[in-house]
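User: Just a sanity check before I run the rest of the batch. Below are the C-alpha cells for the first item. I only need the designed sequence back.
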C-alpha cells in the first residue's frame, strides 16, 4: 500500500513518461489520466500483460531458500533470508516492527482516501480554491 500511495501521487508531481504506451493504438502516456479514470483507458491487451506478469511473479516464487517447499514449515511469512528491521534489543525491535505496521496501515488509509476522493470528485487532490474563502 505504501507503493500504491506513491504510485498515485508520483504522476501528479513528477509527470508522466514521454512517448507511446501503445503505439498500435496511438495511445500516449500523457493520454492516460491519473487515478481511477485510468482503469477504463488502458487497452485490454495492456490489462492482459499486467495480469500475466502478476501471475508470473506469484507462480515463479522467490529465488531464495524460501522457494524450496520443504523449507516452508520452518520459515516465517516474509522471511527471505535477510532482515531489514533488526535490533539486538527485543523492545527496540518490537517498537520498529510496530512502527512499520502502523506506517503500512496509514498507507492503506491514504490509498483508500485517495480512491474515495477520486471517485467523488474525479481527482484525488481536488481544487484547493474550493476549500478556501
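Assistant: Here's the designed sequence for the first item:
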Amino acid at each position: 500500500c505504501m507503493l500504491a500511495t506513491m504510485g498515485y501521487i508520483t504522476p501528479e508531481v513528477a509527470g508522466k513518461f514521454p512517448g507511446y504506451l501503445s503505439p498500435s493504438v496511438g495511445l500516449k502516456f500523457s493520454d492516460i489520466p491519473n487515478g481511477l479514470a485510468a482503469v477504463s483507458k488502458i487497452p485490454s491487451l495492456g490489462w492482459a500483460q499486467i495480469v500475466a506478469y502478476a501471475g508470473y511473479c506469484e507462480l515463479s516464487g522467490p529465488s531464495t531458500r524460501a522457494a524450496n517447499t520443504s523449507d516452508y514449515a520452518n520459515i516465517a511469512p516474509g522471511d527471505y533470508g535477510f532482515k531489514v528491521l533488526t535490533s539486538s534489543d527485543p523492545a527496540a525491535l518490537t517498537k520498529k516492527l510496530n512502527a512499520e505496521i502502523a506506517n503500512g496501515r496509514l498507507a492503506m488509509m491514504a490509498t483508500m482516501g485517495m480512491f474515495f476522493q477520486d471517485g467523488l470528485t474525479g481527482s484525488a487532490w481536488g481544487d484547493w480554491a474550493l476549500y478556501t474563502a
